[in-house]
């Protein structure tokens, strides 16, 4: 097996592991009025962006969305099928893709640090996802944007807990297994502060 084939296999494995993690975290669901539940899936999105980076993490999201599109119940509450792509959560799903890229880019702008994890997870995993999710939810539900944004404040405490959890998990993983953070452009580990 050549080094290139080995690297490709490892990358595919990492994509699959994080897609599976996102799916499993979708079983943690707290329903809310308005059609958009609080789920653990955004924690998986944050972790994918923090660990896999901006080049590889979107493939994990794409895999989850492709599985949902073919009807597998991989989204929160066992949802799947093309209907989820026209429902009130579609903006959040699109936001996941943009969010992992932003998380990965922010994570790789400098040396590894706990606060960089927290900022990246907050900006990409919360602000970017909300920036896509809230307007689309307002459009789909017919609720004015300001009221939809106001109702989304119910998600903020849970999302801040997820940012904290993602930061703690990534800092611990970085100490225990730094190779998980190998740069996809050649297997080099990211620098540590």
Which SSEs are present, and which pair or pack?
Layout: H1 3-25, E1 29-30, E2 38-39, H2 41-69, H3 90-107, H4 114-141, H5 145-151, H6 156-176
Antiparallel strand pairs: 1-2
Describe it.
With 193 residues, the chain is mostly helical. It has one domain (3-181): Arp2/3 complex 21 kDa subunit ARPC3 (Orthogonal Bundle). Helices cover 65% and strands 2% of the residues. The chain has 6 helices and 2 strands, in the order H-E-E-H-H-H-H-H. The protein has helices at residues 3-25, 41-69, 90-107, 114-141, 145-151, 156-176; strands at 29-30, 38-39. It has a two-stranded antiparallel sheet. Residues 184-193 have low confidence and may be disordered.
Shape: globular
Mean pLDDT across every amino acid position: 89
Poorly predicted residue ranges: 184-193
Helical stretch tally: 6
CATH topology: Arp2/3 complex 21 kDa subunit ARPC3
Biggest sheet: strands side by side, in what order?
A: 1-2
* Spatial extent as radius of gyration: 17 Å
User: What multimeric state do the chains show?
Assistant: single chain
CATH class: Mainly Alpha
Quick one: how many beta strands? Answer: 2
Order of helices and strands: HEEHHHHH
CATH architecture label name: Orthogonal Bundle
Q: Span from first to last CA?
A: 35 Å
Summarize the structure.
This protein is an all-alpha fold and 193 residues long. 65% of the residues lie in helices and 2% in strands.
Name a few traits of the molecule.
single chain; 193 residues; mainly alpha; Arp2/3 complex 21 kDa subunit ARPC3; two-stranded antiparallel ribbon; 6 helices
